[in-house]
Please model this.
Amino acid sequence: MRSTLHLLHPEWQGFGLNADVHRGARALAARLFDNRDVVTIDAPEEERLSVTDGVLGLESIARRFESALATVRRASPDRILMVGGTCGVELAPIAYLNERYGGDLAVLWLDAHADLNTPATSPSGHFHGMPLRTLLGDGPAVCTRLIARPLTPRQVFLVGVREFDPAEAEYVARHAIPVLGDDEFREPERVVEAVRAAGYRRAYVHFDVDVLDPSGFPCALMHSAGGGPSVNDAMQVLAALARDLDIAGASVLEYCERDPAWTERLAKAVLGSGLVS
Model:
């Protein structure tokens, strides 16, 4: 039987301006991981952050990444299910799983944003816009030195991404990274087909709730310019991935509990998709 690590990582420092996702992650995890053993990565709700090498809170982020990676390695799970704060928390689970499975891992990035900036290209200096590029080996050295096996561009599938900074768009074009959008949300089996055509059967699913249409989902940390799938359409994609691929890991991130009723609705939808169990 595969071992599963249920991880709560309520880090907000990757955004750095408020701790809304810290509270949102805790509320959502209580519902999604009810009656399960949960490992929590300590992320203080209050912390003074400074800018290092162009990144707000980098010292705190790097220290927590090292601690989280050590925690995951000690647990040595086959699968990781995580509720987290900002997208920056993806470093530890994805770095661990990519090393464990020798690069045989597709990473499906369901997000309104590509998160492919570096400290040199980021308009904001907020790390939650850099984790995917860091996992590809191009982030802050204090983080990349801890990644034994960086991702390669062919492992990455951007799903629902609709806002690119210029340097991100150039990186995506240069490496021919697939960008799957509205058509795939209407026909979710096309996402599975894209992954299988690239030769993968095992996947990690990153689900930042800002991929959802903001007109129907008001609880994301970052508000996209518009568009995106409904909650129901997104769940159809998650269900197809859970049904047809070997899910080595999954996350739900950047949720802000602005109304407790939304916590229940989101948790019920994610549980119904079969992605988190």
